[in-house]
Design brief:
alpha/beta; 32% helix
Amino acid sequence: MSKKVVVISSSPRKGQNSDTLCDEFVKGAIDGGNDAVKYFLEDIEFSSCKACYKCKTPEMKCFQDDGIAEILEGMMAADVIVYATPVYYFEMCGTLKMFFDRCYPIFRHLENKDFYIIMAAGSSSGDALTGLKSFIGFAKNPTIKEVFEVFGNVKSQGDVLKKVYDAGKNC
């Protein structure tokens, strides 16, 4: 059965470690017969959440007219969601945190989704996984299928690239 897969890449550097792993997951998902889309957050102009609560309506729409609405719709329709982040100062990057804040209208409406987490760090991921798991925990009946915690240059780690590709293919 084909699945809808949404991959959120929060790296500021296209084609680098966490983003490269996103590409591998997407390739695997497509090769596995799934419908996959990757959103590279740095290509999308969006502002921070204004905490106005205008999104807390049955339509679950933010008043800000930017690229986030399309991603949120994709996440609602998805079977599988992948969050990828470089680890900066032992936490997820600021771009992903700002994106999570903008997920406020939908986060409690994400039901029965499978989640994958990709973290790329120089040497330690610190508490980054805690924050990611906490956000996923707001969903209803979430399943964290796999966590990829990678250190150093991923392009020279063929075994890791294959593991991520295979996870996408078998998601």
